[in-house]
Amino acid sequence: MTGILRGFIRGVDAVNQRLGRVVMYGIFVLMGILLWSSVSKTFFLPSLWTLEMAQFVMVGYYVLGGPYSIQMGSNVRMDLLYGGWSDRRKAWFDLITVCFLIFYLCVLIYGAVSSTAYSLGYWKDAPFSFLFGVLTGAEEIGRMEQSSSAWRPYMWPIKVVMIVGFVLMLLQCLSELFKDLLRLRGETV
Q1: Which of 63, 84, 112, 169 lies in the 20 to 30 Å Cα band around 73?
Q2: What PANTHER family has UniProt attached to this entry (predicted)?
Q3: What's the pLDDT band for 3 if we cut at 50, 70, 90?
Q4: Number of domains in the chain
Q5: Is 121 left (phi over 0), alpha (psi -120 to 50) or beta?
Q6: Would you say residue 189 lies in a domain?
Q7: Is 37 left (phi over 0), alpha (psi -120 to 50) or beta?
Q8: Torsion over CA: 183, 185, 187, 189 (sign)
Q9: pTM for this one?
Q10: Could you tell me if 6 and 176 are in contact, meaning their C-beta atoms sit under 8 angstroms apart?
Q11: Domain residues for 123?
Q12: What is the C-alpha separation between 158 and 116, in angstroms, rounded?
């Protein structure tokens, strides 16, 4: 059983580390978009797409970089008490708090899947089966949701990015949970 846990931890950590190292350069994409927005507003006609594209890039940067942040332990912590605790006590505390985070991520994934199904034109009550049907070709896409801005991009791509990011974050939280369990058993991770 320990071998399976270690394999899961290695696999999830490797995927999130590689993706996180790529996504962290998204800040430069965001800066480029905002720079172009400033230049186009000053010297040319203002671009309609820049503000909303900057928001989309920021969502991708934040959501896809979240698992890497959790893995590196760079998320915000209250070190007032936590910093002085023993490794075993930290593992217990992390084990409890990661369970709350896993529940929260499950709720977020459900909401993201429902929202994505809606953006693809589905208004019924089975969004998971609809998205699975879309992927397998069994379901037809309806009238797709577009933004209400002047640019009017389709909303489903950023919603799919959110689903991927939340699932990766859930997998990273499970990896952290398994690391805490191994630490509590006295094993090195």
Answers
A1: 112
A2: 2,3-DIKETO-L-GULONATE TRAP TRANSPORTER SMALL PERMEASE PROTEIN YIAM, SLL1102 PROTEIN
A3: confident
A4: 1
A5: left
A6: no
A7: alpha
A8: negative
A9: 0.90
A10: no
A11: 2-184
A12: 9
Kindly state the tokens that stand for 72: 């590196």
Average pLDDT over residues 168-172: 97
What tokens were used for 100?
């709350």
126: in domain? yes
Length of the chain: 189
| Distance separating alpha carbons of residues 60 and 68, to the nearest angstrom | 13
Reduce the secondary structure of the chain to three states and give it as a string: CHHHHHHHHHHHHHHHHHHHHHHCCHHHHHHHHHHHHHHHHHHCCCCCCHHHHHHHHHHHHHHHHHHHHHHHCCCCCCHHHHCCCCHHHHHHHHHHHHHHHHHHHHHHHHHHHHHHHHHCCCCCCCHHHHHHHHHHCCCCCCCCCECCCCCCCECHHHHHHHHHHHHHHHHHHHHHHHHHHHHHCCCCC
